[in-house]
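Design job #97: recover the sequence.
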């Protein structure tokens, strides 16, 4: 890990640490799930939000928001494909959450792995 990667990771951890509970704990766990699902991603701050990219100098693929609802989203640089079926050409790219359970953590892992293909 480069010094820049270490600095960026610390900024992401600091951003998450500045959140109020219980969101801080949820976002910390989402961060852990993302890093475990795609260890090649580099955490960094992107537009003031925790985000994850292939390198410190490439656009973010995944971001986290802590607004009225917490949000996991994919950027246009992620591997996004149309959903098909009833959703036709719509591409799923954002998910809102209030808490985590095993199924949600597993789904986040799937989303992250698909985004970095």
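Job complete. Output follows.
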């Amino acid at each position: 890990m480069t010094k820049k990667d270490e600095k960026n990771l610390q900024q992401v951890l600091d951003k998450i640490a500045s959140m109020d509970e219980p969101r801080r704990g949820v976002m910390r766990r989402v961060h852990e799930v993302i890093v475990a699902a795609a260890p090649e991603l580099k955490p960094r701050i992107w537009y003031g939000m925790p985000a994850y990219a292939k390198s410190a100098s490439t656009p973010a693929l995944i971001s986290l928001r802590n607004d009225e609802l917490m949000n996991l989203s994919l950027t246009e640089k992620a591997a996004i494909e149309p959903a098909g079926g009833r959703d036709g050409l719509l591409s799923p790219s954002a998910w809102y959450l209030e808490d985590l359970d095993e199924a949600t953590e597993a789904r986040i892992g799937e989303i992250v792995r698909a985004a970095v293909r």
